[in-house]
Design goal:
Blueprint (H helix, E strand, L loop, with lengths): L1 H11 L2 E5 L10 E5 L2 E8 L3 E8 L5 E4 L4 H10 L4 E5 L5 H4 L2 H7 L4 E4 L9 E2 L5 E4 L2 E7 L8 E6 L7 E6 L2 E2 L2 E2 L7 H12 L7 E4 L4 H11 L4 H15 L7 E2 H7 L8 H7 L4 H13 L6
Helix pairs in contact: 5-10, 6-7
Bound molecules: zinc ion (ZN).
């Protein structure tokens, strides 16, 4: 009853966040509600995130990168949710490694993904593929580079101007991006600037790992004077001290402090001594691969 009143109250404001007790993982699970879209952030392994996306109208629920199915299903059960689909960002084991197990446990599970190397795949998607999670609409964005078949999932709630989220796997992180294991700088430029960067600036960014503090150390090395970066670092350190996830950020925020999103900015071009954004993307990635922060 109390919970229902709280939900009702909270729903009258634009969005709210609540926390469940910490269970010994790297972060405390959190739930974020925006309109009819509910996202539960669930820590996994050392620094991965799994997510449950629920359409609150129908209770239909999708899991993103369920690498630890038992943990995820326990969280879903606690909230009275039944998972009926899996959204896989890419084939790496720390994202898709739980697919076989969860498919064995949930009959008729639909598993989406953009790469034949993804275990238990039932529905292969490509750029522009669309499907529904109840009343939520999902659009698949092809973002190859970290892996050849990487997909980000852009999700809209009923209020299409406001209830927006993108699940970016290992393409875009808060303050950084994934390594270019199977791609070139131009592909990451296209993924970050041309594909994810054109989403509405209030789109919430839910990424695959808790790497924010370490990413921002590099961002501050590149732009020590950027007050957005300085402030975000201060904020992120506080959150991590309390085991609170630093996701989600927003697309608009990322353009303010993420050097890989800012490759078209004069400051980044000057820093990298590059004449094009694509070249700067390559420079930043290789510099960060060898970066050892002093702090
Ligand atoms: Zn990966």
């Amino acid at each position: 009853m109390l919970r229902a009143v709280y939900h009702q109250l909270a729903r009258s404001t634009a969005w709210y966040r609540y926390t469940t007790p910490w269970s010994g993982f790297h972060s405390t699970p959190q739930t974020i509600v925006k309109g009819n879209m509910k996202v539960k952030i669930i820590p996994a392994l050392d620094d991965n995130y799994m997510y449950l996306i629920t359409d609150e109208e129908t209770n239909i629920t999708a899991a993103v990168d369920p690498v630890q199915p038992d943990k995820l299903m326990e969280d879903a059960k606690k909230d009275g949710l039944e998972i009926s689909m899996v959204l896989t960002t890419h084939h790496h084991w720390d994202h898709a490694g739980g697919n076989k197990e969860i498919a064995g446990k949930i009959p008729k599970l639909t598993v989406y993904g953009g790469d034949d190397r993804i275990d238990a795949l039932t529905n292969k998607v490509e750029h522009g593929s669309q499907f529904k999670i109840g009343s939520l609409s999902v659009e698949c964005l092809f973002t190859p580079c970290h892996t050849k078949g990487h997909i980000c999932y852009f999700i809209k709630g009923k209020n299409e101007d406001e209830d927006l989220a993108v699940f970016t796997g290992d393409t875009l992180f808060v303050g950084g991006c994934g390594k270019f294991f199977e791609g070139e700088p131009e592909q990451m430029y296209n993924a970050l600037v041309k594909t994810l960067g054109v989403l509405p600036s209030n789109t919430k960014v839910y990424c695959g790992h808790e790497y924010t503090v370490s990413n921002l150390k590099y961002a501050l090395h590149v732009e020590p004077e950027n007050t957005n970066t300085v402030n975000k670092m201060e904020w992120a350190k506080e959150k991590r001290k309390a085991n609170v996830p630093t996701v989600p950020s927003t697309i608009g925020e990322e353009f303010k402090f993420n050097p890989f999103m800012r490759v078209e900015d004069e400051c980044i071009l000057k820093y990298s001594k590059c004449s094009s954004a694509v070249e700067a993307m390559g420079f930043l990635r290789s510099e960060k691969n060898n970066f050892k922060p002093k702090m």
